[in-house]
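anyone seen this seq b4? input:
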Amino acid sequence: MILTAAAWITILLVGGGAALDRVLLNSVEQNFDNQLEYVLTAMIASAEIGPDGEIRMNRPLGDQRFLEPNSGLYWQITGKGTMPFPSRSLWDRELRPPVDHNDQAVHFRNSREFPDEPLRIAERAIRLPDSNVTWIFMVAQSRDSLDGQIRELRSVLITSFLLLALGLIVLAALQAFYGLWPLRAVRMAIAQMRNGKESRVTDALPDEVMPMVNELNALLDHNEKQAEESRRHAGNLAHALKTPLTVIMNSATALSPDLSETVIREATTMRRQVDHHLARARPVGRRGHSHSRAQVWGSLESVERAVGRLYAHIRLDMAGDPEISARVERQDLDEMLGNLIENAAKYGGGSVFVTVEEAGDFVEIIVEDDGTGIPESNRERLFDRGARLDTGKPGTGLGLAIVRDVVEIYGGTVALEESEDLGGLLVRLRLPNALG
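predicted toks r here
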């Protein structure tokens, strides 16, 4: 930031300084030329042709320097075929008339014809009354005073612009340094958190930095929540596996005759617990990915094909907007819909109807079947792990529990109701809308 600001300041000041130098130089030179033109006009006004055809001045010019030899201010009148008529200040020198132009208007030029004295010359060609000769009137002045003014002007200009550039660069550096100072406070706060001395960034910081600090604290909250959920899952899994392992160990120690049946039964319980916790842990690790997006209709078609192979006698109908997408991972959406539709096919009477529609910031997926339904008093109990009302059909009792765990991780809801159209169970699944 400082180098960029310094580069732009330098470019702008160099460009502005060059433009200002040109304007002031032209102004000083114009003022110098105006004085020469004034003297030239006065000289032309006082010139006349004498009886012998030679040019002469009917009154002297007022500046005393025209009478002092080598004074730095000179005039000269030159005509073709005549001797030059110089001022006394030229002494034994003379000005060279122009050879490449014959200006009727005033012409200004620089000349080095005097080796030790650069000149600024104003000249004009005039034909006087009663004369057939074109006379070249020239007024010359040493450029020493003009060049001295230009040097002094440029010295002041360069010094001023250098000080201005230095001041602006220092101010830009101070602005960047103090403007970014709050980020140093954030860095030190993060270092304190890494050392275990702080848990959050709590310092009062400028409004421009607070959104970043809030997002950082929210990220820490998210990570802590994920870590806590991971610890809880590990503890729950350990607790769930402890009892089956104890039963197996006791049976093995006692050389129980039904050891094989005990191992199979308890291993099935442990596998059910492991499946449940793996299903719950997978979306936990992906939570917070706001870019997660899955098309509901594509997932439904995939589930329909899988369920159709398992339950060929089931009729599955779908309705809704095929373009609706939910803010979830496709794998998790497939698992939730698979559990719900498989339950409807397994426990229903042969018809399953799925509706997909938008409900504000959510996508609502309704799964209905024509089974016997579930009493309202038992609906909430079905979300418990291993809970089953119909033990005559195969299953683990983890389907709805997994659906509820996964949908809550994504910020959605799932509820059991009664289907008014089919008479069986209605499951209302609400997931965040990908367009919300």
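Confidence is low (pLDDT under 50) at residues 386-398. The first helix runs from residue 2 to 45. kinda curious what u guys think
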